[in-house]
Design goal:
Number of strands: 6
Number of domains: 1
Strand order of the largest sheet: 1-2-3-6-5-4
Distance between the termini: 69 Å
Shape: globular
CATH class: Mainly Beta
CATH topology: Thrombin, subunit H
Order of helices and strands: EEEEEEH
CATH architecture: Beta Barrel
Radius of gyration: 17 Å
Length: about 110
């Protein structure tokens, strides 16, 4: 009989595969950018896969392409900032420090030009 470790997470994780773009900042180093797809997201963290490892402890900004549209018209993105807490075998885990939705209103800008 095998025992499973209890889940210590206080927030549920959701398996979502959403496109993202990231920018990693480490003091004294060149900023790294890239694209990936989320593996899972919770209220306080997320994970995704990369080809090259990212530095644990580094600050990261992530822009996730959200599947819903604002007022069924304007594209939405979720802007996340946080810190990389783990990078194992190409899987990166991020602890979020902030998150907010951004709305792109390109159709309004093109109508007023």
């Amino acid at each position: 009989m095998s025992k499973t470790a209890p889940n210590r997470r206080t927030h549920g994780r959701y398996d979502l595969r959403l496109p993202l773009h990231y920018r990693v900042s480490v003091k004294g180093e060149t900023t790294r950018t890239g694209s990936a797809t989320t593996s899972d997201i919770s209220a306080t963290g997320l994970s995704f896969r990369t080809r090259k490892p990212l530095p644990v402890g580094a600050h990261i900004e992530i822009l996730i392409e959200w599947p819903a549209k604002y007022r069924d018209v304007d594209p939405m993105s979720l802007l996340v900032t946080g810190f990389i807490v783990r990078c194992d075998g190409g899987r990166v885990a991020v602890r979020m420090t902030s998150r907010k939705f951004k709305i792109t209103t390109a159709h309004l800008e093109s109508q007023t030009a």
